[in-house]
Amino acid sequence: MNPSLANFMLARTPESIKHPEGHEEEATQATQATGNKMSVNTHFKLNTGASIPSVGLGTWQSAPGEVAAAVEHALKSGYRHIDAAFIYQNENEVGEGLKKAFASGIKREDVFVTSKLWCTFHQTGLPEKCLDQTLKNLGLDYIDLWLMHWPVPMNPNGNHPFFPKHEDGSRDLDTKWSYVDTWKGMEAVYKTGKVKAIGVSNFSVPYLEKLLSEATVVPAANQIENHPYLPQQEIVDFCKEKGILVQAYSPLGSTGSPLFKEDGVQEVAKKHNVGPGTVLISYQGKSNLVCRNLLR
What we know:
Blueprint: H1 3-10, H2 15-18, H3 24-32, E1 43-45, E2 51-53, E3 55-58, H4 67-76, E4 81-83, H5 91-103, E5 112-117, H6 126-138, E6 145-148, H7 179-190, E7 198-201, H8 205-214, E8 221-225, H9 233-242, E9 245-249, H10 263-271, H11 276-286, E10 290-294
Parallel strand pairs: 3-4, 3-10, 4-5, 5-6, 6-7, 7-8, 8-9, 9-10
Antiparallel strand pairs: 1-2
Helix pairs in contact: 1-4, 4-5, 5-6, 10-11
């Protein structure tokens, strides 16, 4: 990740999303690219009442030594939502980018930061340990949204701190631990004020149904892969019914996706004189989904 790549994505993000004030006309044009006359959503409300920017900068697969510059550049260019995760193993550099952006005058309270609990930190006492390390790496006192990265508890004492395996090469899962208990641990951390909202990621309907049957706190969000190739309408509809905001990762398609070259995307982009990236981002906004752009 580097500033030139940041420029690539920033150039494809509608100005009405990066800078909502004074760009009402651009906002209308962006959503009209999908044939809808509604103005584009620049923010959504979580079930906690908090506001979350509709477009965020993702930091997955970001090369060492580059992510700090990209985060700083994105924030100075108008982004106000940074998506990180413990397992990305670059949160210290994300923190460097945040620090430089804050030093330039951007206020912490104006930036929405998401992070995620990794699978080897599900058991009793470990979720808060993982979060404390994330806060230290990011240089923050709190996280705006903290997600359970996967509903898959792994052995915290296995042969690898993040991806433990059995001798046969299969993943070393902790089958005696339930992700529902992990959620209860996250609920306890939520009460400390170290996180302003908690949610999940990569959850299907059955997993959410089980969680909701025992949860005290309804997840504020569910971050899933979502784009025209993978709309996942069943889980999207279920989340909307339950008041859970859906966040779309890989909105431009997963790694190596040819979405930009799809005839339909190209046709709509040409018709409305916008880039294919604008069409795909507007697709998420029209669907009332938070869009997490990935710069890599």
